[in-house]
């Protein structure tokens, strides 16, 4: 196996680490169990993947206490004189070394201390502070830090000071006042990032008017651009409720959430500390009245909703935003008309469009005429076919114009497949859409007949109703006639006659459901008054009408949904395993019959089961045997999926269970029955009736009806007189089946089996006690004489088997529940269907018999037959020889042979003189 | 019973020399000319002279088996060892130890190069005869291994176990799992025999199953009573089945019909062996009453009840070509020859 893997490795990309190849004879290594998989730290201690602080450190000794011995407090000194000095524990005392390392929670690394950091109260820092304060959960909390300023300044600060630098100034040589910067033209495009317009330039404005020539100034302090990433989902330039406005603002001021823009940004970024002379302080509801507070008028200021916009106002002067957070429009009234489209703050890097967008023209929807009614009616249309051409004629006469147009079917009469046909679609190849396709040809024909009758009636009905409709100018869908007609047509077409009964639209009301089913049945039969006769006569007229509509609707619905759905879906190729279990297809059947066979020492076909068995290919190779099933990948016995809880898994269906169905079918098909079917046949009656045949053939036939069909493959039953008994056999099979089902005690007697399987010597005695009646005895006598003649040639010690084969009814009949028909088992996969009505039930029973005849024939050396028959049989004989034990083949041929039975009946007089002894000898 | 015998002669019956046309590839026939019956067969002689008794020193001897040519034998001991003897000389050639529990069955390959054995340790072991080493150890059975067999070319070991499976182990490849597992039996497998294309298995569920590889079919014959031993006849046409109802049955291989029934011995508890004599003339079976029973195969009559000892005859093996019988009782094995046997060149 490993070698195979290695071969296939070469052209495969492998991922991961391969396992080590197994050594010879070595068992696969067991993986390290979970409890032995440990992680240790650098000191060899176990590392646990849980912990109080960082997750993955070991606290104490195996997560318990400090040491193996326990938890010893380090500070404990047991002495009266020197008390333990009270030590203050920091968090580090409870931490491990790992926590103090670089990646721990308290890394002890070299960092710049605050002493050497710049302690400038510069604006950058200030601004960051302000920003933090503005966005902090408690607004203004950072202001506390500003109140408490550390005294010491950083080294760099002091150095700069000593060099003449003052706070608030920039660094560099003193300069003259620069010429005033031009404001960018509106038409000039600015790419990239520009400095924010607020801030430093705002302070410049005050100095504009006074510019002495001989004065130099320190360079302006540069405020770095604040690149705040946008990490929220607000609109551009949106800012939330400004705490300065909301809390420190005047109470009368209207809080405008959208009053952002340059001023707002200035407020934020600008000098908050000198905010229009107002002192910063802690105020507001959360803090109460401070001692330093001067203005106490709005201490108890409450946030009222009146401060906020509650409606979207039409247009406020100066603010045309309509509640949008977009940059403000109409801010600047003096801009030209061109800029009217977009005023407000232009984002950096963008400029206004020079050409206005042409607005989309919106076309109003067309006006409806006043008398428009949004319902459309199609005219009734009849497709011109041969059957309803007269109808068309009538229709065209009454309506005045021909309606022959195949394309204009009413859409209510078309189902998906018909529409598909009209559109030239290929029909969907899917599962059979109806049960019809599972039916045999014969059934289909019968159904067809029924359907034709229905169609005829429906067509008549339709013609009538259509004529009525056509006479009226407008078809009225609510008229019961049309409704009736439509559902009738729908039901009578296509799959209507065969309908699964699992569609129960009125399941809640069992009475109604019953009526509905009755209605369906009537419809199937083609009764045009299907509805009337199934409705409850006690109902009122209104109720009847209503129910009628309902039924029609339900029937239509079911038809359409059934056909469309089934054509759109296919059966699952892979079946769900949940409900099913794999069981061997062929099972060794019940041992009880075999047990009795063993007791009687009737080894052979009774005790033998033969299965198809697939040896492994490698096994065949090792045994130097050709694979018997070269195309099969199966190994072992063929297995089928059956319902997990199906009775069939546990029940070996004895032969008798199928006989009720067979009986039922034979009642349905009376032509298969013999003339004596009217009364209850028993074995003994039939034998008397069939006096013309010898009793052996009868018993053989009976035995076969019991034994033969299930086990035809292992039947060396030899019937020398097949020509002679062909008809009787087939008749008796039916009788035997009947007697099986109708009579409890009509099993074949022990003698029967002895006659078939045992040799003659112990059965000589039974001849005297045969109960067949005197007349039969006579026949037996003459027959025996014949037998003796033929027997002498054979010189076999079996002398008088004929008598032995006589039934001895006084003997208790051994019960032989006979195993399932193997023909069926071979062809069927999946859960076995219950035996259904099938007209060729007789064939099935006959087939094995035929086969036995074949077999007997081929062994028969001195048969007198028709030449024609013989030639026919020869073919089969060859066949037989080839696959003596291939049951399948013989079964296949048996079906074809069964057709021979009819012609063979004419030959039956030919082989009348064959000896039953010889026959039975072959059986043994 | 007698009646059944009368029906049978039309079949190719081993005792009647009809078997010449059958192409026999049974492993016992590889000696050469012995495969074909002589034109004037000698009257069959039964081994009834005790030639030797070997105390194996293995505690109880679970099974005794001839090798392919009958010159050596294997004894399976309950002391976890397997021993190779030369029974006629009475010498111990080699001891094979490596089983974890008692050894229940063993078989030798056609070329005498390897042995296989199975035992209570659920393992099937392939041994190298010369070195005495374990070549392979096949594990997979869920219960103790009752019976092991090589196929004709010693490429596959078939082992039947109490876990109701027969496993086909590949001796050629290194795969640890069996080629195929025959799990059709409903109860433990007591006996497995292999021909060139068939596997015959007797099970405690009372069925004899014959897997025909060539035909791809499984024939299951119901016997009813738990099967203790099955074997093919040397001509490959019949199967001999012994079951716990103290009956041996000779079944036609193709049809499953009963050709003969042999009773008189006692086999109600133990898994005892049965076999056919070297020329298919007699049916031989162990018995729980300390005897070995010989029946005439055709007539079904008891030919000889050979008293071996006081306790149960646990196992027996019949020489493939000569009337020589090995029986195992307790901790020793006995070698039996026909009365007229004379040791060539002095025994020992």
TrEMBL record, chain A:
GO MF terms held by the record: RNA binding
Extent of Basic residues compositional bias: 851-887
Segments of skewed composition (Basic and acidic residues): 669-695
Feature: compositional bias, Low complexity: 895-904
GO biological process, one term: mRNA processing
Polar residues bias spans: 466-476, 657-668, 727-743, 788-801
GO cellular component, one term: nucleus
Stretch list, region Disordered: 1-41, 169-226, 462-488, 657-924
Stored InterPro entries: DUF1604, G_patch_dom
Acidic residues bias locations: 202-211, 768-779
Domain G-patch positions: 152-172
Source domain of life: Eukaryota
Protein family according to the UniProt entry: Belongs to the GPATCH1 family.
Name by which UniProt lists this protein: G patch domain-containing protein 1 isoform X2
Species, as recorded: Physeter macrocephalus
UniProtKB/TrEMBL annotation, chain B:
Entries under Pfam families matching the protein: WD40
InterPro entries, A to Z: WD40/YVTN_repeat-like_dom_sf, WD40_PAC1, WD40_repeat_CS, WD40_repeat_dom_sf, WD40_rpt, WD_repeat_MORG1
Main location as per UniProt: cytoplasm
Keyword vocabulary terms for this entry: Cytoplasm, Repeat, WD repeat
GO CC annotation terms, alphabetical: catalytic step 2 spliceosome; cytoplasm
WD repeats: 54-95, 96-137, 138-170
GO annotation terms (biological process): mRNA splicing, via spliceosome
Subcellular compartments: Cytoplasm
Protein family: Belongs to the WD repeat MORG1 family.
Subunit note: Interacts with EGLN3/PHD3. Interacts with ERK signaling proteins MAP2K1/MEK1, MAP2K2/MEK2, LAMTOR3, ARAF/Raf-1, MAPK1/ERK2 and MAPK3/ERK1. Identified in the spliceosome C complex. Interacts with PARD6B and CRB3. Interacts strongly with GTP-bound RRAGA but not with inactive GDP-bound. Interacts with p62/SQSTM1.
PANTHER family noted in UniProt: WD REPEAT DOMAIN-CONTAINING PROTEIN 83, WD40 REPEAT PROTEIN
Protein name: WD repeat domain-containing protein 83
Lineage: Eukaryota, Metazoa, Chordata, Craniata, Vertebrata
């Amino acid at each position: 196996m490993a070698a195979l893997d290695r071969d296939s490795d070469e052209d495969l990309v492998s991922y991961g680490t391969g396992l080590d190849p197994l050594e010879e004879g070595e068992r696969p290594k067991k993986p390290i169990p979970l409890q032995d998989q440990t992680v240790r730290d650098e000191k060899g201690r176990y590392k646990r993947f849980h912990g109080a602080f960082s997750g993955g450190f070991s606290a104490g000794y195996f997560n318990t206490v400090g040491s193996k011995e326990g938890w010893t407090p380090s500070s404990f000194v047991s002495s009266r004189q020197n008390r333990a000095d009270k030590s203050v524990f920091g968090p580090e005392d409870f931490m491990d070394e790992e926590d103090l390392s670089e990646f721990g929670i308290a890394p002890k690394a070299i960092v710049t201390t605050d002493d050497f950091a710049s302690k400038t109260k510069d604006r950058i820092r200030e601004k960051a502070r302000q920003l933090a304060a503005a966005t902090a959960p408690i607004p203004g909390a950072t202001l506390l830090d500003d109140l408490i300023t550390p005294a010491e300044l950083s080294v760099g600060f002091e150095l700069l000071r000593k060099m003449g630098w003052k706070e608030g100034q920039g660094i560099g040589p003193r300069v003259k006042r620069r010429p005033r910067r031009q404001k960018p033209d509106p038409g000039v495009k600015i790419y990239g990032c520009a400095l924010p317009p607020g801030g430093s330039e705002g302070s410049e404005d005050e100095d504009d008017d006074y510019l002495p020539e001989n004065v130099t100034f320190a360079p302006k302090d540069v405020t770095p651009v604040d690149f705040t990433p946008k990490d929220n989902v607000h609109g551009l330039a949106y800012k939330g409720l400004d705490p300065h406005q909301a809390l420190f603002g005047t109470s009368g001021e209207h809080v405008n959430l959208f009053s952002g823009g340059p001023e707002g940004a200035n407020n934020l970024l600008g000098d908050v500390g000198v905010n229009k002379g107002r002192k910063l302080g802690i105020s507001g509801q959360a803090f109460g009245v401070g001692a330093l507070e001067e203005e106490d008028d709005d201490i108890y200021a409450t946030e009222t909703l009146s401060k906020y916009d509650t409606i979207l106002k039409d247009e406020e002067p100066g603010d045309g935003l309509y509640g949008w957070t977009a940059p403000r429009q109409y801010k600047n009234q003096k801009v030209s008309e061109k800029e009217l489209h977009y005023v407000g703050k232009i984002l950096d890097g963008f400029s206004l469009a020079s050409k206005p967008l042409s607005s989309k023209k919106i076309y109003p929807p067309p006006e409806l005429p006043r008398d428009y009614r949004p319902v459309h009616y199609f005219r009734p249309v009849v497709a011109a076919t041969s059957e309803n051409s007269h109808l068309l004629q009538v229709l065209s006469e009454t309506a005045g114009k021909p309606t022959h147009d195949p394309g204009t079917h009413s859409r209510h009469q078309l189902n998906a497949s018909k529409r598909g046909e009209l559109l030239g679609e290929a029909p969907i190849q899917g599962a059979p859409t109806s049960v019809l396709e599972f039916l045999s040809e014969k059934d289909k024909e019968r159904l067809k007949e029924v359907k034709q009758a229905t169609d005829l009636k429906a067509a008549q009905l339709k013609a009538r109703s259509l004529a009525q409709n056509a006479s009226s100018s407008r078809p009225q869908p609510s008229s019961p006639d049309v409704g009736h007609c439509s559902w009738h047509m729908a039901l009578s077409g296509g799959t209507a006659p065969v309908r699964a009964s699992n569609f129960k639209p009125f399941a809640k009301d069992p009475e109604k459901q019953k009526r509905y089913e009755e209605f369906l049945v009537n419809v199937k039969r083609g009764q045009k008054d299907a509805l009337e006769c199934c409705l409850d006569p006690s109902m009122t007229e209104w109720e009847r009408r209503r129910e009628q509509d309902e039924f029609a609707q339900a029937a239509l619905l079911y038809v359409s949904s059934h056909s469309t759905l089934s054509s759109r879906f296919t059966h699952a190729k892979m079946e769900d395993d949940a409900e099913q279990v794999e069981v061997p297809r062929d099972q060794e059947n019940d041992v009880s019959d075999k047990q009795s066979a063993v007791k009687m020492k009737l080894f052979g076909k009774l005790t033998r089961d033969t299965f198809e068995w697939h040896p492994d290919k490698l096994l065949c190779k090792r045994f130097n045997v050709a694979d018997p099933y070269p195309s099969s990948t199966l190994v072992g016995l063929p297995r089928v999926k059956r319902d997990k809880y199906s009775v069939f898994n546990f029940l070996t269906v004895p032969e008798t269970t199928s006989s009720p169905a067979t009986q039922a079918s034979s009642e349905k098909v009376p032509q298969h029955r013999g003339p004596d079917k009217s009364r209850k046949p028993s074995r003994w009656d039939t034998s008397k009736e069939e006096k013309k045949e010898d009793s052996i053939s009868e018993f053989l036939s009976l035995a076969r009806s019991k034994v033969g069909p299930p086990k035809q493959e292992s039947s060396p039953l030899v019937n020398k007189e097949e020509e002679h008994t062909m008809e009787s056999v087939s008749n008796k099979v039916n009788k035997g089946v009947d007697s099986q089902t109708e009579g409890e005690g009509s099993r074949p007697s022990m003698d029967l089996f002895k006659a078939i399987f045992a040799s003659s010597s112990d059965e000589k005695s039974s001849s005297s006690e045969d109960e067949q009646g005197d007349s039969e005895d006579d026949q037996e006598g003459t027959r025996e004489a014949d037998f003796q003649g033929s027997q002498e040639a054979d010189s076999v010690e079996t002398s008088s088997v004929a008598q032995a084969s006589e039934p001895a009814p006084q003997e208790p009949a051994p019960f032989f529940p006979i195993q399932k028909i193997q023909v069926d088992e071979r062809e069927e996969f999946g859960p076995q269907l219950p035996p259904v009505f099938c007209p060729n039930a007789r064939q099935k029973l006959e087939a094995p018999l035929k086969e036995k005849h074949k077999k007997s024939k081929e062994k028969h050396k001195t048969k007198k037959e028709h030449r024609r028959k013989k030639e026919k049989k020869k073919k089969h004989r060859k066949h037989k020889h080839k696959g003596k034990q291939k049951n399948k083949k013989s079964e296949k041929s048996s079906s074809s042979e069964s057709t021979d039975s009819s012609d063979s009946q004419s030959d039956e007089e030919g082989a009348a003189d064959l000896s039953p002894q010889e026959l039975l000898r072959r059986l043994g | 019973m007698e009646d059944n015998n009368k029906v049978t002669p039309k079949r190719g019956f081993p005792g009647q020399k009809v078997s010449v046309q059958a192409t026999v590839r049974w492993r016992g026939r590889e000696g050469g000319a012995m495969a074909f019956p002589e034109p004037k067969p000698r009257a069959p002689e039964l081994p009834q002279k005790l030639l030797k008794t070997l105390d194996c020193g293995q505690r109880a001897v679970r099974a005794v088996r001839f090798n392919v040519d009958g010159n050596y034998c294997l004894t399976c001991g309950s002391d976890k060892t397997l021993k190779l003897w030369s029974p006629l000389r009475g010498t111990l050639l080699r001891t094979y130890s490596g089983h974890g529990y008692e050894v229940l069955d063993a078989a030798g390959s056609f070329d005498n190069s390897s042995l296989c054995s199975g035992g209570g340790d659920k393992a099937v072991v392939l041994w190298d005869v010369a070195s005495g080493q374990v070549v392979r150890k096949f594990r997979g059975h869920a219960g103790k291994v009752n019976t092991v067999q090589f196929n004709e070319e010693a490429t596959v070991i078939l082992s039947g176990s109490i876990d109701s499976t027969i496993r086909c182990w590949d001796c050629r490849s290194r795969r640890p799992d069996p080629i195929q597992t025959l799990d059709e039996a409903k109860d433990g497998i007591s006996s497995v025999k292999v021909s060139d294309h068939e596997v015959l298995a007797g099970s405690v569920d009372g069925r004899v199953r014959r897997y025909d590889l060539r035909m791809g079919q499984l024939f299951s014959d119901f016997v009813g009573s738990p099967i203790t031993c099955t074997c093919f006849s040397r001509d490959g046409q019949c199967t001999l089945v012994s079951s716990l109802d103290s009956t041996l049955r000779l079944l036609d291989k193709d049809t499953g019909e009963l050709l003969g029934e042999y009773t008189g011995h006692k086999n109600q508890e133990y898994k005892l062996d049965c076999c056919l004599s070297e020329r298919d003339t007699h049916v031989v079976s162990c018995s729980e009453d300390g005897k070995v029973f010989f029946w005439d195969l055709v007539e079904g009559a008891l030919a000889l009840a050979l008293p071996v000892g006081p306790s149960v005859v646990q196992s027996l093996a019949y020489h493939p070509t000569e009337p020589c019988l090995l029986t195992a009782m307790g901790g020793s094995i006995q070698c039996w020859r026909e009365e007229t046997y004379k040791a060539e060149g002095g025994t020992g």
